[in-house]
Structures are given as structure tokens and as C-alpha cells.
Specification:
With 361 residues, this protein is of the alpha/beta class. It has two domains: 143 residues, Nucleotidyltransferase, domain 5 (2-Layer Sandwich), CATH 3.30.420.40; 169 residues, ATPase, nucleotide binding domain (Nucleotidyltransferase, domain 5), CATH 3.30.420.40. The protein contains twelve helices and ten strands. Strand 9, helix 10 and strand 10 form a beta-alpha-beta unit. The longest helix has 34 residues. The radius of gyration is 20 Å and the shape is globular. Bound molecules: 5'-O-[(R)-(carboxyoxy)(hydroxy)phosphoryl]adenosine and zinc ion.
Length: 361
């Protein structure tokens, strides 16, 4: 079968500089021809978090080389590309401008269509790159900036069913890591420490449990961890492991409860979802994977989680979303703006009690 499209994707919204080339077949299936990710962990580690100005400068320095590697690894020439996709937001605006402007220049020089991709839409559509999955499905998107339950009804057709009212889940993992002196980025560190800890030693709160809406809250849990940590101070390695295990268990139990409500809301409005899909950096967490298995089974649906390397930010997800949008006849002109904020569900409003300037609602 011949290919339908070859798309270059560029990702620069946070601290990964990434580019990839994917192929989308006429039957809707996909194949990754190259996927080059350069994490800026080393640049940001001394500061314990992502510094926007450092990220933007690093994207400028790195992006051309990353694109060149992605193109040469794929064996595809620029002239053979069907389109150039870039994440146009939401994210740190300096980085977004670097990636989108570069994509525009390539599109202009090679006379190719530009696709300005919403980074969240790319996370939402990623599972369709690696397995045949039809709409509609229920998405749990959990990353450093977002924690949402979304009904994915089609390309460009999303309804948000729940969101965090304060911290994003990845942000909570990162903050807990920081307060316990674990290095940045914290999510994988907390997971590793938790694997050696006793989750029952501390009785942390399970935020929002039993509420009829599908919203999340994580800042109270984070504060509870902070209080225990300062009570124990100085912390021994086993204390850190136990605090991480307790935090992760509470976050997962609350997530399972919120998702079972989200799946119920989905069922009432849109019928049975074809799958429960988890995406975003937090979906790389192995403990979350097993917790969600139970939630999906109870809702009589299947759980799909892309491989960890496609859960964290990468260029293949942007290229794939670009191909999906092109196949739906959605392309952009060179005026497409970079956006720091960009809702997946344009009709969504901030939930009651929303209190965060960093996590998108
Ligand atoms: O999707 P992503 O790569 O970037 C954003 O768009 O934010 O997600 C990054 C977030 C970080 O907060 C990181 O700590 C978290 O995902 N994360 C994890 C794990 N791996 C990454 N959180 C918990 N467990 C993990 N294994
Ligand atoms: Zn992301």
C-alpha cells in the first residue's frame, strides 16, 4: 500500500527540543520514521525546574540540528514531505515562537502546508499512531501543566469532562520531589523512591474522593506531604521512600475515583467509550498504569497507554496530529499565531474554586 502522507513534526513548548517524521497510510495507520528528542534536563537541573528564558535559548541553539537528524534518520527529503507541523501552544511562549517560526520558514521555502498543532491535541491523538483506535474515547491527560479528563469525539472535537482546580498532577510530583530534595524532573524520581517505600506509613488525604463532578485537586495532598516531611526533619532515605509511596498511593487512589466518575459522565453523554486512554508525561508512571487497568475494567472498556517515550513530549505526536488534521482537511496559513494558552475544548470554563496560574484549566 502506498503512503498517504509524510509529515515533519516540531515540538518546543516546554523543555524538550524534538522533531520527527511520521508516515500516515491511507487506512489511517501510522509509522514513525524518526523521532529525535533532546531533553534540556541538564540546562534546567541547577534551578530545580524549567527556566523559560533558558528553554527558549536552548531551543534556538538545538532545533536546527534536531530537525536535520530527524530528516536524515527518516531518509525522507524535504521535497517529499506532505506538510510541516509545529506545536503552536499551549506552552512557554519563547519556545513556542522558536518552533513555530522554524516550521513556517521550512513550509515557505519548500512550498508545503503548515499545520499549527495544539500540544494537548497531539497528546490526545497519539494512541491512534500506535494502534487502531476509533472515536469516541475517554482521555486522561496528565502532564506538568495539565490534568484533564476529555471526551475525544473526533479530530478537533473535544469536550472536557473534568480538570484540576489547582496543581497539575505532574507539577505535584515535581513539587513533592523538590521538597524531599530529589533531583529534577521529579516524576520519575518519586516513582522510583515510592517503589522502595511503605505506602501505609502515612495516611495522606485522598482529595475530591466521592464528589459527583470529575475534577481533581492536588495541592492539599502536596501540603500534607510537606507537613509530614517538616515534622520528621532531618529525613532519612527510608522516610523519603515512604513519603513518596504514600503520596503516589493517595494521588493514584484519587485519580482512580475521579476517572470512574469521568467515565460515568462520558457514558451518560456519549455512550460507551471505545477505550480509556492515558497520555502526557505522568502516564509514563508504571503504578498509574496498573491503577487505571482496574478503572477501565470496571467501566467495561479497554485501557490504552502509548509507550512511555510517546507519553512524554516528543516530535512524533506533533507530526501525527498534523497528519490527522491534514487528513481532515485542516491546514493553517503562515499567520498562525503562537499561543501561551490554548484550550482543547474552547467552550470549557474554569471550574469552581479554580486557583492556579500555571496549570491550564
Ligand atoms: O507531557 P510532559 O512530558 O510535558 C508537559 O507537557 O508538561 O509531562 C512532564 C511531566 C512532569 O511533571 C514529570 O514530572 C511528569 O510528567 N512525569 C512523571 C513521570 N514521568 C514524567 N510523573 C510521574 N511518574 C513518572 N514516571
Ligand atoms: Zn506534554
Amino acid at each position: 500500500m502506498g503512503y498517504e502522507m509524510l509529515v515533519l513534526g516540531i515540538e518546543t513548548t516546554c523543555d524538550e527540543t524534538a522533531a520527527a517524521v511520521i508516515e500516515r497510510q491511507t487506512d489511517g495507520s501510522g509509522r514513525i520514521l524518526s523521532n529525535v528528542v533532546r531533553s534540556q534536563i541538564e540546562e534546567h537541573a541547577p534551578f530545580g525546574g524549567v527556566v523559560p528564558e533558558i528553554a527558549a535559548r536552548a531551543h534556538v541553539d538545538l532545533l536546527d540540528g534536531i530537525i536535520a537528524s530527524a530528516m536524515s534518520e527518516s531518509g525522507v527529503g524535504f521535497d517529499k514531505l506532505s506538510g510541516i507541523a509545529a506545536a503552536a501552544g499551549p506552552g512557554l511562549i519563547g519556545g513556542v515562537i522558536v518552533g513555530l517560526t522554524t516550521a513556517k520558514a521550512i513550509a515557505l521555502v519548500h512550498d508545503k502546508p503548515l499545520i499549527a498543532v495544539n500540544h494537548l491535541e497531539a497528546h490526545a491523538l497519539t494512541p491512534r499512531l500506535t494502534c487502531p483506535l476509533a472515536f469516541p474515547y475517554c482521555l486522561f491527560l496528565a502532564s506538568g501543566g495539565h490534568t484533564q479528563i476529555v471526551a475525544v469525539l473526533g479530530v478537533s472535537d473535544y469536550v472536557r469532562l473534568g480538570t484540576t482546580v489547582d496543581d497539575a498532577m505532574g507539577e505535584a510530583f515535581d513539587k513533592v520531589a523538590k521538597m524531599l530534595g530529589l533531583p529534577y524532573p521529579g516524576g520519575p524520581q518519586v516513582e522510583r523512591a515510592a517503589a522502595n517505600g511503605n505506602a501505609k506509613r502515612f495516611n495522606f488525604p485522598r482529595p475530591m474522593m466521592g464528589r459527583p463532578d470529575a475534577n481533581f485537586s492536588l495541592s492539599g495532598l502536596k501540603t500534607a506531604v510537606r507537613n509530614e516531611a517538616s515534622r520528621i526533619d532531618p529525613l532519612e532515605p527510608q522516610d523519603i521512600n515512604d513519603l513518596c509511596a504514600g503520596f503516589q498511593a493517595a494521588a493514584l487512589e484519587s485519580t482512580a475515583d475521579r476517572l470512574s466518575v469521568g467515565l460515568k459522565l462520558f457514558q451518560e453523554r456519549f455512550g460507551t467509550p471505545r477505550a480509556l486512554v492515558a497520555a502526557g508525561g505522568v502516564a509514563a508512571n508504571q503504578a498509574i498504569r496498573s491503577a487505571l487497568q482496574d478503572v477501565a475494567a470496571k467501566a467495561q472498556t479497554t485501557l490504552i497507554i502509548p509507550p512511555p517515550a510517546l507519553c512524554t513530549d516528543n516530535g512524533a505526536m506533533i507530526a501525527w496530529a498534523g497528519a490527522e488534521r491534514m487528513a481532515a482537511g485542516l491546514i493553517d496559513d503562515l499567520e498562525a499565531p503562537p499561543r501561551a494558552r490554548w484550550l482543547l475544548d474552547a467552550k470549557a470554563t474554569a471550574p469552581a474554586g479554580f486557583a492556579n496560574t500555571r496549570a491550564g484549566f
